[in-house]
């Protein structure tokens, strides 16, 4: 129940929808019950005077609560006063009016519930997505993307129907049941108490049937998440799959999980579907027993027996009692599935971001002096990646990070925009400790161009202006010119309004990288972070991109991870990192003269070239 009430909290302000829903539902139930109760005056009107039960039917209601008795009194009075034809007209008009009103209020009830359902889904999905966007970068290295997508898309959808349907079942169906039972009691207390035995028996049997549905639902949601993950990987790596003839293996991998998911769904649906025929059979069995028992009372002319019209109305009403009772029992299976999905969604919502602003964090207005790393260490779990890094990056200088692969260069680069916090040591900018500043103001001072050039499936213009959403056409074009991108953009089908495709797959590697550089230029940050921005390019593209990078780095503080060491020989400071430690630092000439790791790396590249 704790999980359910937490999920229900996303419906706030619930009273906006709940109050009109309650009013409309109550009126719908009242008129819906009246529809069947009006069968009594209808049959009383149509039955000829002096019928089978005329000798044992009283002409007055036993009490003010005897609804059917009151209606019979009205029919007898009207039939004697106005005649049978006019009485029949009155009864028919009453039935039409009651049906019309019950349907109007039922429509309004469903409309308010649908508004509540949409409102709940909106709030829940917004909360989940917002929390995902606020999580630290490291979280996504440990989680399957397909599982996150499944929770945001599929699980949230299951939850919204469970929350609102349960709310509907918990209020509407019991209330409907109460109204029907009250009318049945007004007709015959003895027969009603006898007939209601079916409800607890049915509920007990159904609860046994759906007992394992929650566990099966949880397993099904997790299996579906795996399939989404496989699909995402397959679409992202389609070229590799084709290149290594891996299509059949990938199909088999997906099919295997698909079979598991299908079997879980089959078992779950079988249990869900079993509840409906069981409750329906029990209901029909009870109706048959009531027809047999009540019919015998009428045929035997028992004292105080029901009239034929009352008995027909009773059977009609009791047959409707099974509908809300059946809805209540059927809802158990849906609740179990929804709670299982809800627990997965809440688990994602409850995942806290490791990096949050301190309550008294201040804004960094501008970068004035330097960026300092003091005794910085960092670990991924038990694996230490950086050890006691000490580095001063002065404003306006270019600092290059070089060294063997896996030495910790990219991790160090990730610490600078505060994607992670160091395990030990401090990072300061202009004397302010990173932890005393807002994360947003730190990142506002920086622009990034990565080795993997990422573009959104949008126009070239929107990809460049992502760094500055209010940028004008002239500003975007100016940034593209600095990045050596303007000419090839004009040669595309629709120029700056051309779509780049999924992850920019309509463009070459060099073109994508230059658009990423244009995006960074437009942001115009004082600090530029360049993570092997030319390593994946051919010679011609590399030349164009390197020229664009040189334009980008002018009059800026630049931190560069270098793939080709020849491109960073003019850097003010070259830092050599190996096995998480700074082993050398200095200018190109100083490091060459030391004949250390840097010189060996230079010699290796020269030899390979």
From TrEMBL:
Pfam families named among the record's database cross-references: ABC_membrane (PF00664), ABC_tran (PF00005)
Keyword annotations of the record: ATP-binding, Membrane, Nucleotide-binding, Transmembrane, Transmembrane helix
Record's bilayer topology term: Multi-pass membrane protein
Chain segments annotated as transmembrane: 21-43, 88-108, 177-206
Residue ranges of domain ABC transporter in the record: 371-604
Highest taxon of the lineage: Bacteria
Domain ABC transmembrane type-1: 22-337
Compartment annotation: Cell membrane
Keyword flag Nucleotide-binding: yes
Gene Ontology molecular functions: ATP binding
Protein name stated in the entry: ABC transporter ATP-binding protein
SUPFAM superfamilies: ABC transporter transmembrane region, P-loop containing nucleoside triphosphate hydrolases
Coiled coil location: none
């Amino acid at each position: 129940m704790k999980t359910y009430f937490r999920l229900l909290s996303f419906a706030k302000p619930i009273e906006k929808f709940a109050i009109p829903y309650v009013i409309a539902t109550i009126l719908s139930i009242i008129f819906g019950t009246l529809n069947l109760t009006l069968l009594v005056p209808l049959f009383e009107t149509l039955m000829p005077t002096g019928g089978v039960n005329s000798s044992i039917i009283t002409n007055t209601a036993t009490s003010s609560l005897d609804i059917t008795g009151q209606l019979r009194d009205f029919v007898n009075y009207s039939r004697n006063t106005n005649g049978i034809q006019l009485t029949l007209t009155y009864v028919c008009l009453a039935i039409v009016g009651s049906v019309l009103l019950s349907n109007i209020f039922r429509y309004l009830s469903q409309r308010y519930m649908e508004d509540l359902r949409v409102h709940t889904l909106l709030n829940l999905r917004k909360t989940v997505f917002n929390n995902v966007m606020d999580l630290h970068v490291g979280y996504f290295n440990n989680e399957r993307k397909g599982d996150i997508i499944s929770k945001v898309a599929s699980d949230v959808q299951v939850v919204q129907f469970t929350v609102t349907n349960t709310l509907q079942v918990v209020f509407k169906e019991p209330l409907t049941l109460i109204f029907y039972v009250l009318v049945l009691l007004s007709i015959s207390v003895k027969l009603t108490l006898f007939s209601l035995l079916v409800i607890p028996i049915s509920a007990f049997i159904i609860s046994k049937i759906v007992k394992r549905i929650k566990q099966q639902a949880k397993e099904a949601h997790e299996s579906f998440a795996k399939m989404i993950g496989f699909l995402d990987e397959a679409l992202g790596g389609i070229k590799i799959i084709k290149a290594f003839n891996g299509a059949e293996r990938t199909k088999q991998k997906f099919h295997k999980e698909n079979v598991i998911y299908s079997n879980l769904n089959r078992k779950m649906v079988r249990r869900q579907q079993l509840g409906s025929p069981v409750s329906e059979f029990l209901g029909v069995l009870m109706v048959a027993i009531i027809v047999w028992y009540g019919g015998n009372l009428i045929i035997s002319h028992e004292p105080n027996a029901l009239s034929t019209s009352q008995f027909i109305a009773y059977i009609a009403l009791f047959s409707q009692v099974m509908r809300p009772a059946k809805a209540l029992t059927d809802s158990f299976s849906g609740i179990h599935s929804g709670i299982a999905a809800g627990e997965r969604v809440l688990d994602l919502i409850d995942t806290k971001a490791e990096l949050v602003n301190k309550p008294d964090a201040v804004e960094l207005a501008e970068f004035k002096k330097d960026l300092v790393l003091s005794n910085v260490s960092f670990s991924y779990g038990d694996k230490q990646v950086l050890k006691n890094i000490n580095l001063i990056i002065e404003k306006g200088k270019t600092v290059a990070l070089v060294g063997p692969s896996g030495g910790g260069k990219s991790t160090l680069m990730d610490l600078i925009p505060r994607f992670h916090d160091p395990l030990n040591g401090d990072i300061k900018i202009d004397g302010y400790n990173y932890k005393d500043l807002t994360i947003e103001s730190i990142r506002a001072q920086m622009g990034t161009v990565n080795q993997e050039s990422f573009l959104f499936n949008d126009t070239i213009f929107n990809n460049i202006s992502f760094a500055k959403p209010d940028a004008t056409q002239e500003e975007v074009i100016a940034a593209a010119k600095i990045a050596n991108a303007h000419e090839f953009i004009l040669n595309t089908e629709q120029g700056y309004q051309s779509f780049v495709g999924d992850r920019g797959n309509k463009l070459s590697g060099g073109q994508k990288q230059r658009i990423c550089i244009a995006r960074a230029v437009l942001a115009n940050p004082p600090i530029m972070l360049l993570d092997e921005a030319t390593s994946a390019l051919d010679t011609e593209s590399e030349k164009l991109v390197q020229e664009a990078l040189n334009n980008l780095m002018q009059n800026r503080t630049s931190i560069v991870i270098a793939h080709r060491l020849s491109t960073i020989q003019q850097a003010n400071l070259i830092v050599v990192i190996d096995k998480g430690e700074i082993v050398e630092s200095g200018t190109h000439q100083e490091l060459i003269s030391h004949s250390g790791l840097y010189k060996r790396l230079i010699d290796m590249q020269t030899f390979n070239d």
